[in-house]
Amino acid sequence: MDIIVESVHAGYGKAEVLRGLSLRLPERGVLGVLGRNGMGKSTLVRCIAGLNPPTSGRITAGSRDITALEAHERARLGLTTVVQGRGVFPNLTVRENLEMGRIASGRSLPSRLDEVVSYFPRLGERMSQKAGTMSGGEQQMLAIGRGLMTHPKVMLLDEPSDGIMPVLVHQIADILARINRESGLTILIVEQNVPMIFRMTDRCVIIEKGQVVASGTRPELEASNAMHEYLAV
Ligand SMILES: Nc1ncnc2c1ncn2[C@@H]1O[C@H](COP(=O)(O)OP(=O)(O)OP(=O)(O)O)[C@@H](O)[C@H]1O
Ligand SMILES: [Mg+2]
Description:
Layout: E1 3-12, E2 15-25, E3 30-34, H1 41-49, E4 56-61, E5 64-65, H2 71-77, E6 79-82, H3 94-104, H4 113-119, H5 121-125, H6 136-148, E7 154-158, H7 166-183, E8 186-191, H8 194-200, E9 203-208, E10 211-217, H9 218-223, H10 226-231
Parallel strand pairs: 3-8, 3-9, 6-7, 7-8
Antiparallel strand pairs: 1-2, 1-4, 4-5, 9-10
The protein binds adenosine-5'-triphosphate and magnesium ion.
Adenosine-5'-triphosphate binds at residues 12, 15, 17, 35, 37-43, 84, 192.
């Protein structure tokens, strides 16, 4: 399922954050969204997920206009979101968190537990541990695993590298790339961590003040001044 965002405006009350943002996430593709703090990355994710509807513009999934759909309706179409800060249930065990993902999808789905554990063996070793007592990286794996339990077609990830040590960031990036390759999961990943994005994909957009200011492949972006200008790297 591809996602097309067309001229979307969104914000909070009078404060406009997205100012005519457009991008295309191709089916089975991985698109990176880079941008500095406060540029509207999380707002974009929330907009696509249906948690913060746009004031104007259009979002389509497949050939379907989803602009006016509620978050749970988008979820039923196969959209899943891993929010910034992970959002696992700290007092539930790993297994319960994963099962919640399946139940929350609102569909009667076969359990995908074995598959999720094959991607994240660490979760398999910690099934009865309370999620809140796991390390940041383990909680991130759990949040991704819980998303996978809903049998998504598209996964939106909001800064999965946040607060996680580099070696684990690389591991998570490699697992996500593998899931994309093996199951065709379409992925939008918002990050400030440029190496993480480039481990997973060649294609990125850079957003600045709620608009896409640069897009292209890694070599294209590196050849232009965009990385330096908008990301200070
Ligand atoms: N619930 C909210 N109410 C009011 N303003 C908000 C709200 N959430 C975000 N904002 C503002 O919207 C702007 C964009 O925020 P957003 O969270 O989308 O940025 P971001 O690119 O994800 O930043 P970061 O890299 O720090 O996560 C910021 O100026 C922020 O203060
Ligand atoms: Mg954010």
